[in-house]
Task: inverse folding
């Protein structure tokens, strides 16, 4: 398999761990081991007794039961776990699709959502989101993009990097469109539960009629990216079998400690997600003030969910040059749109972390020095 460089991940690998502030991060505020264990009395002793042999390939029964509890009527047998959502993407694209299949991908997107598909020899069409319409992708355009060879539509909602969330009417129309054409929807839901208004939350894709697929992990809403625990939930038992056989060749099983910690997080998801939503809502308010102050330099579409926004740079140099100088001069990492294979005018801001107020204050000082 020949696959192109993953621009976002290469960019983050080079810069993330030398920055004083990662203002372009996509994850929620993390927890220490001590903080996580404190949510579950007795778990410290359970951890000390944990055996460090192979874990069950599909994921432990208790972990899959906790994941199934995120959905309506999904059984643990309709869940398979992976080493992060990234492996889940690789597994789905490698087993559900064949060369020459046509796949439509909401764009901009996390690169693996379309690049792995291309590497399989599939025909990939990007379904561009419209910034002037609040980053909404056009359903009428989707009708023009789909054809007899279309096997899957890949979506991400809440969306990285724009913060867009499908409204219920568009979501329902998309499902109806796919059902009429026997198209599978692969729904990247790693930001689900981080809708800024609870009323905006949509059903998980696995919970709607049809053999659709929900992708999840503990990296974003829970802030536990270091555990590397993700999953796929689907009622398509044939697909689940193919995913399991793929994992036999990729990672065989997850880390036993990672599964242990992820199980605690999922059992106490209410507390963790509520804390992260409090941080997010506070930080979005700060961004409202920041982008009002700097309206001559930036325009933005206020996000409705998730942890990221994708403002446009109105003036000055390109986004990549600005982000590079900002990192070198002030130790702040923002992510230019070019690493999303978008344009050089947009920048990803992340607002899921506790230290965003300090980072934003330092950014404000940098901009005042440069732009007055």
Result:
């Amino acid at each position: 398999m020949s696959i192109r460089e993953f621009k976002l991940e290469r960019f983050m690998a080079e810069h993330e761990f030398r920055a004083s502030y990662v203002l372009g991060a996509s994850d929620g505020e993390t927890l220490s081991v001590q903080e996580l264990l404190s949510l579950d009395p007795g778990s410290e002793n359970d951890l000390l007794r944990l055996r460090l042999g192979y874990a069950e390939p599909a994921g432990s029964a208790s972990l899959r039961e906790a994941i199934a509890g995120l959905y309506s009527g999904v059984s643990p047998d309709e869940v398979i776990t992976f080493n992060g959502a990234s492996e889940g993407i690789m597994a789905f694209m490698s087993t559900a699709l064949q060369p020459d299949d046509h796949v439509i991908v909401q764009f901009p997107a996390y690169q693996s959502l379309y690049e792995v598909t291309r590497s399989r020899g599939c025909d990939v069409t990007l379904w561009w989101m419209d910034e002037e319409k609040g980053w909404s992708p056009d359903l009428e355009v989707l009708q023009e993009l789909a054809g007899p060879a279309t096997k899957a539509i890949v979506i991400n909602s809440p969306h990285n990097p724009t913060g867009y969330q499908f409204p219920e009417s568009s979501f329902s129309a998309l499902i109806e469109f796919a059902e009429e054409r026997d198209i599978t929807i692969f729904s990247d839901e790693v930001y689900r539960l981080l809708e800024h208004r609870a009323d905006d939350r949509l059903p998980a894709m696995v919970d709607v009629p049809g053999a659709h697929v929900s992708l999840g992990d503990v990296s974003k809403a829970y802030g536990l990216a270091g555990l590397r625990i993700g999953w796929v939930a689907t009622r398509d038992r044939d697909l689940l079998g193919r995913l399991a056989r793929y994992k036999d060749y990729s990672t065989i099983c997850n880390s036993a400690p990672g599964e242990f910690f992820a199980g605690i997080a999922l059992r106490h998801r209410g507390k963790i997600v509520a804390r992260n939503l409090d941080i997010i809502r506070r930080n979005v308010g700060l961004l409202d003030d920041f982008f009002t102050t700097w309206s001559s330099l930036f325009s933005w579409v206020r996000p409705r969910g998730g942890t990221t926004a994708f403002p446009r740079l109105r003036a000055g140099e390109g986004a990549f040059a600005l982000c590079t100088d900002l990192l070198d001069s002030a130790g702040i990492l923002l992510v230019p749109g070019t690493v999303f294979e978008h344009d050089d005018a947009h920048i990803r801001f992340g607002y899921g972390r506790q230290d965003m107020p300090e980072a934003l204050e330092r950014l404000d000082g940098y901009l005042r020095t440069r732009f007055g």
